[in-house]
Amino acid sequence: MTQTIRVNDASVEKAIQKGLRQLQLTQDDVEIEVIEEGKKGLFGFGQKDAVVSITVKEKIKQEEVVVEEVEESFDDEEFDIEDNYEESDEAVEVLDNHIEEAAHVTKAYLEQIAEIYGAPSVVHVEVQKEKMNFVFETDKPGLLIGKYGKILNALQVLAQVSVHRFVKGRMSVQVDVGDYRLRRTEALQQIAEKTARRVLKTKQPVYLEPLPAYERKQIHAYLSKNKRISTHSEGKEPHRYLVVEIAE
Description:
By secondary structure, this protein is an alpha+beta fold. The chain folds into 3 domains: about 5-55; about 90-175, K homology (KH) domain (GMP Synthetase, Chain A, domain 3, 2-Layer Sandwich), CATH 3.30.300; about 180-245, Ribosomal Protein S8, Chain: A, domain 1, CATH 3.30.1370.50. The protein has helices at about 10-25, 60-70, 90-95, 95-115, 140-145, 150-165, 180-200, 215-225; strands at about 5-10, 30-35, 50-55, 120-125, 130-140, 170-175, 205, 230-235, 240-245. The strands form 3 sheets. A 3-stranded antiparallel beta sheet has the order 1-3-2. A 3-stranded mixed beta sheet has the order 4-5-6.
């Protein structure tokens, strides 16, 4: 089923940008129909918002289905997207000769996936002692990020599996598109701060929208610094969400 949203704002351009932010896609990934041009009005009278209809192109929807199937084959709680390695201080040193091969094979694998998705990319690799970073450089970042980073998280799982075919030790893997991870972390911190203020003001729990385990973990870690706030997760994947409330 095709996803369509209707958005209104002061101007057509603002409505379009608002909708793209909501979908976390680029203008290349959607079809836009202007429903109402909107009016500025005079001295605040007769003002009317612009209204646009934004439809996600079918190609993107099909790709998300494929990625969801990949994600569902891994349990977020058992296969941590951030700390997926065996605890062994010696393993990486012993298998150093395989690290270069793991990086080369995984880079080619990710570039092949991006090509199939219709987002040709160059993947840059940075290898540190216990961490391997893969960063996509592409003209279509929205295709590889997906809503709330869902596609990117699935690509990270695939990269982790690929790397750990060669390196069995203490090696974490991260996949990024540009600086999305940094921007998303900053956005999650803002959500956490805003939610904490609301809970402290109203004394009522706040139920956040469903998020991947990796992002719930970030919000939980950030709010754990506030002793007046407590957090816990409820629901089942992929609809598991975080509850923020006053600490008892």
